Each structure stands twice: as C-alpha cells, then as structure tokens.
Amino acid sequence: MRAFQWPWQARANQRNQIQAASPSFYGMWDAVARFAAEIRASDFMAEMIRRRDAYDGSVGVMGALDCATLYALTRWLRPAVIVESGGFIGMSSAFSLKALTDEKLATARLYSIEWSEECEHGALIPDNLRPQFMPLRGKVEDFLKRDELPSSMDMFVHDSSHSYRHMLCATADCLCRMTCR
C-alpha cells in the first residue's frame, strides 16, 4: 500500500467509491419519490388539506410537500418507533401514521410530544390512525431527563423550537437512542 497519494489519485478513488454506492442511493430516492407521488395524488392528501384549512389556528402547520416527503421517508424506512417533537395539531403525525398503516406496521408507534397546553394535540389525525398515536404533553428535554421516551427509536422528527439549545439537547439525545440498520 502506498503511503502517499497525489490529490488527483485520491479524488479518482473517491469518485469510484461514490459510483459504487450510487445504485442503492438512487434506488432509495426513487422509492421515496414514488411514495411521495402516490400520497400527493391520494384522497388522503386531499382530506388532510381540507381538515388543515378548516381548522382554526392551523398557521405554521406542515405543508403538502413536506407531508408527502415525511410520508415517503417513513414508508421507505419502516420504523417500529418514531419520536416526534412538536406534534401540534397532528398534520405531520397523520402522515407518519398513514405511512405506518400503508406498510402494515401494526405494532409500530408514534410518540408525539407537544408542550403547549393551548393546542388540541393531534386534532387533525383521523380516528382510524389513532391506535398507534402516543401523545405526550410536555417538553422534550423533560421526557429525556426523566427517561420517559423509548430506549431506542428508529426515526426522530424535529418540528418544535429551533433554538440552538433546544435542538442540541433534543437531537443529540435522540440520536443516541437511534437504532442502526
């Protein structure tokens, strides 16, 4: 093995490594794009947009493209445990739950954390998706400190405060609980 490589040799080796990994990478995004297109054209999307628009106080709720992407990533990943910070009225929760249902993951759970006492946590979630919905009222940091979240999780959705301190605490701790596949 050579102890020294010219920069152009290193770049050539990196290109070969990237090309070797490309088929599975592009295959993953092809699947995600297919799932996203499927949900965007569905009656479920139309119904959720109608619910969102009819709900008083839905300002700041996730939009259709974000929901379709979340749905698609959830279907592709097939998580057993999702933890969501900032569940609010449940727009993103509904799409995660729909993905779990469409993948027939009946034992999977979505733990949705919302700190605001003033919002109707999960109000937009259709009744048929509620069995897998685990609403938690409080701050993410408090649930983490008290060890009241699942010890391992497959997916973490951060949709709450974007302050540096909050994101550092919630994201770092949740990443430690993430399972590697």
What brief labels describe this structure?
single chain
Q: Tell me, what is the CATH class?
A: Alpha Beta
Order of H and E elements: HHHEHEEHEH
Number of domains: 1
Question: Quick one: biggest sheet?
Answer: 4 strands, parallel
Query: Which bin fits the share of residues in helices?
Result: 40-55%
- Our count of helices gives 6
How would you characterize the overall build of this protein?
The protein is built from six helices and four strands. The protein has 181 residues and is of the alpha/beta class. It has one domain (43-177): Rossmann fold (3-Layer(aba) Sandwich), CATH 3.40.50.150. A four-stranded parallel beta sheet has the order 3-2-1-4, with helices on both faces. Helix 1 (7-40) crosses helix 3 (64-77) and helix 3 packs parallel to helix 4.
Topology readout:
Elements: H1 7-40, H2 43-54, H3 64-77, E1 81-85, H4 91-102, E2 109-114, E3 133-137, H5 140-145, E4 155-158, H6 164-177
Helix pairs in contact: 1-3, 3-4
In short:
It contains 6 helices and 4 strands, in the order αααβαββαβα. By secondary structure, the chain is of the alpha/beta class.
